[in-house]
Amino acid sequence: MHEMVKGANVGLAGLSENVDSVSVTLGWASSTGEGDADVSVMLLGEHGKVRGDSDFYFYNNPVAADGSVQLLGKKPAGEGSEDQIVFDLTAIPADVERIVVAASRYEDARFGELDDLRVTLADGSGEGLLRFAIDDAGSVSAFIFGELYRRAGEWKFRAVGQGYDTGLAGLATDFGVDIDDDAGEDDDTGEETGTTGRGTEGETGAGADVDEGAGTGAEGNGGAPATAAPAAGTGATTVPATSVVEQASPAAAGLPGVPAPRQPGEDAEPTGPKKASARPRTAKKKVTLPKAVKKSLAENDSWREARLFPVSALKSDRDREMRATSVLLSVMAQVPEFGRRLTAAFGAPAGRTETFTEVSLPHGETPRRPDGVIRVERAGKLWTALVETKTNGNALRAEQVQAYMDIAARRGYEAVITLSNDVALEGSPLVEVKIDGRRKHKVALWHLSWAEVTHQAQMLIRHEGVGNSAHAWLLQELLSYLQHENSGCHGFQNMGAAWVPVRNGIDDETLCQGDPRTLEVVESWERLIRQVCLGLGGELGQKVLPVRRARRGTDPGVRRARMADELCLRGTLQSEVRIEGTPGVLALSADLRTGKLRTSIEIPAPEQGYPLNWAKRLVRRLAEAPADLHVETLVEGESGGPRGTLERLRPEPADLLPANGAQITGFRLSLFKGMGSTRGNAESGFIRSVDDAVHRFYASVLTHLDRPAPRRTPAEERTVTAAAG
Q1: Which pLDDT band, with edges at 50, 70 and 90, does 170 fall under?
Q2: Backbone φ, ψ for residue 251 (5° rounding)
Q3: 645 by DSSP, 3-state: which?
């Protein structure tokens, strides 16, 4: 993989022959598990500005209508997360000269608080081509990682690495995007003071054309540190929260697209406090399911609604596999938004899509019949993937997948996609295949779980929307099919053959450290947590991701080995989950010795006020929470403070105060639940009990908590004081 340094650029064609479609991944880590950022992409024309607001892609506008850009969202990686963007470079309009890839943080969060900032780029087969590691982000709230740009008909990548202290709104407006502040009435971004402006003429920004190997970014501007706001050509301007920031005037059209860093001495005093610019939104109208369910015309509950994809005739696993494959592939072909969302992560271009089932392909003396084939045509070129499907918990067979990989390599196909109830884990492939290094043509092996398919369908029809009502109806029919008990597409449902022996070994204290079966249980536990996150995220329309703590290590194998040792010594499985919009990390612990599941969250104590008022307000906020909720006071320098159930604390919130007057640092809220012992899909099953515990804790506890108020930076405090004077 080509390692890049700040300011360097490289031609993509020199790194791979398969760069018509590329994926760019932004990643970061956080020792607390709380660090996160939002990715954004801007397509820039000849003047370094977007051609219109539709050229700005972010969480509310993640997919281009022509399929040229698609934000795929986050996935856990190490102790942090990664955000992937897929670009179909053949579909990028001809008048787009540069593509800026950036990310932003909110409230008082800064990129300097994150670890292991990086951007990687992979070709259409998924092979990594380049990597740019960033270790000097500094105290900025937005950051330009890199950019793709055209030069003599060839696409190149430039490692920019430039900081920006005005957040998403400031970064977007400086590239010509209009920000509609009415869109952010419910956005809890807090107050923020900053300036917006553009570089003066003659400065060389990170986006200026330079020769190969020449410095870019801040280096092109005298080597000034790229951690301050852009320079203001005519002084800083403060934008009221009720206004709409207009696009730059034509006079600024010749200025650099990536604003240059502010030079020493150019900081202007703010004119007064201002509210943070609201998050931009797209004006694109999309169809989602109505929140209120229409009243049924059925006379009684025994009447069943007619479905496009019936499941009553399914009798065998083979029937389920054939029906599930046909249903999914047909909807992918008919609903472009859905099909593109699933295939973009696999390197497919945007184009005309056709899907097939039960295709016969020659393979020695016996023809092979993959469950499905996906073909995408773009500019006269074909992208082809073979699909192998399993349902009802059946495992993928390595020899079968190997045969499809060999067929794909000989026929020049791009990918093999496996689809089953299993959830793929980093560093733990579901099947082992051999790649013949002598073959020039490379075939990528990808895995998709039925839980991920369901998640993507939920996100589109319930939260993000699709192009028309017919597409929404098709997705709803698909979702109804996948969630039916007879479809066999219910996701990960079995903890594996090692689960019962490990539990028995913990019960009778015969389980030895280093037993390989404990590692199997740990991997099953990780798959379960990942699936719970997909399910809850699809229901809420929010990011729900597992947290990877730095203390457990960045290597997946080392981390799982430590968890296996902990399972042997303490009999517990532990994970943490971050749910967007909640005040902390949800901790989940399964104690196999006591048969109890514990879900909990730690919330920090307010910065101001009196401890008694904190306790009263917390109990008041939890008025609708379960009476058996355990509340514990966290005390500085001590292992634990006063605790009790909510039922006991409601009449006496003062019981939460430590008797010795010790300083309160926060509160821990916990719910306990008995866990099932069976491995299947019965109501008492362990997998179902974990899923129920997380959903119950979110619905009955987390929804009643306030997000912590953002802390003001010293600069904001000075601004407020100056305005008051």
Answers
A1: confident
A2: -65, -25
A3: strand
Q: Beta strand pairing status for 630-635 and 664-674?
A: antiparallel
The span from the CA of 369 to the CA of 375, in Å, is 16
Chain-centroid distance of CA 719 in Å reads 35
Give the DSSP letter string of 201-228.
TT---TTS---TT---GGGGGTT--TTS
116, 78 Cβ separation under 8 angstroms: yes
DSSP labels for 93-161?
A: -TT--EEEEEEE--TT--GGG-EEEEEEEE-TTS-EEEEEEES---S-SEEEEEEEEEETTEEEEEEEE
Q: Does the model's pTM come out above 0.85?
A: no
Q: 647: phi > 0 → left, psi -120 to 50 → alpha, else beta; which?
A: alpha
Cβ burial of 283 (10 Å; 0-12, 13-18, 19+) is exposed
Structure tokens at 440: 């020039």
CA 539 to chain centre: 15
| pLDDT tens-digit readout, 38-61 | 899 999 998 889 988 889 998 778
* Helix H or strand E encompassing 522: helix 516-540
Task: Measure Cα distances from 202 to 174, 197, 252, 521 in Å.
Answer: 17, 15, 12, 61
More confident residue, 219 or 380: 380
Q: How many CB atoms within 10 Å of residue 523?
A: 21
8 Å CB contact between 413 and 384 = yes
650 burial type by CB count under 10 A (0-12 exposed, 13-18 middle, 19+ buried)? middle
The token duo for 327 is 């249903």
* Strand order across the 643-645 sheet: 544-546, 572-579, 585-591, 596-604, 664-674, 630-635, 643-645
For range 7-35, the mean pLDDT: 85
Question: Which tokens go with 653?
Answer: 């919130």
- Rg for the chain, CA atoms, rounded: 27
353 SS3 class = strand
**DSSP state letter for 498:** T
**Residue 330: what residue type?**
S
**Residue 724's pLDDT band (cuts 50, 70, 90):** very low
Residue 635, token pair as written in the block:
């005390």
pLDDT at 144: 92
What tokens appear for 667 in the block?
């509160």
Specify whether the CB–CB gap between 421 and 528 falls below 8 A: no
Q: Compute the distance between CA of residue 369 and CA of residue 361 in angstroms, rounded to an integer.
A: 6
State what percent of residues in the chain have pLDDT above 90.
37
Give the integer Cα–Cα distance in Å for 51 and 236: 25
Lowest mean pLDDT among 122-131, 182-191, 507-516, 560-569: 182-191
pLDDT in tens, 448-458: 999 999 999 99
